[in-house]
Design brief:
There is one protein chain. By secondary structure, the chain is mostly helical. It folds into 2 domains: 22-79, no CATH class; 92-163, no CATH class. The protein contains 8 helices and 2 strands. It has helices at residues 22-33, 54-57, 63-70, 81-92, 96-111, 116-126, 140-150, 152-163; strands at residues 47-50, 75-78. A two-stranded parallel ribbon has the order 1-2. The longest helix has 16 residues, at 96-111.
């Protein structure tokens, strides 16, 4: 009997802010996948998943195409979590209480991200920063909500101090 094992590996986070076009992203991918701990047989990389942005999914010059030149079995799979996130945002935007909650939560996060003095004070009281504002990040709202829930009482104190 032939034993086949599938592996899913997380390689790491990296700063790609300098250039987010397909070629530099592909170069970065090839550099990381060729590291000794991740060396991958060209026939064994069978999937690549992105959020569907043009730079990722472009059929002629997108990242997935550049990767498929070297890894011919690396089939592109669209990540539907992004669409789900948009659907959820749209659905709660029609519920008044949810709309108010998310608006206030975002305002709170923005307020504490625009001043080093406020950031330091938040760190002193809560011992944690709010996640950076990123409307395109799928995980942003859940991290922000978890931070708020986890430190609700301390945040009330901070709010009261700044609202005086």
């Amino acid at each position: 009997m032939l034993m086949i094992r599938t592996f899913k590996r997380f390689i790491g986070f990296c700063d790609i802010s300098a250039d987010r076009s397909a070629k530099p992203l592909a170069d970065h991918f090839f550099f990381n996948i060729s590291r000794p701990e991740y060396i991958c047989d060209e026939n064994k990389l069978v999937a690549q998943i992105y959020n569907g942005t043009a730079v990722m999914s472009g059929s002629h010059y997108g990242l997935q195409t550049l990767i498929r030149h070297k890894y011919k079995y690396a089939t592109y799979i669209h990540c539907y979590a992004h669409k789900l996130d948009l659907v959820l945002k749209q659905s709660v935007s029609h519920v008044k209480e949810c709309k108010i909650f998310f608006k206030k939560l975002n305002e709170f996060a923005v307020f504490f991200s625009k001043s080093t003095k406020r950031i330091n004070e938040l760190n002193l009281i809560v011992k944690k920063q709010f996640p950076a504002i990123s409307p395109t990040s799928l995980n942003y709202n859940s991290r922000l909500i978890n931070t708020e829930v986890e430190h609700k009482e301390k945040n009330k104190t901070i709010n009261a101090d700044y609202c005086r």
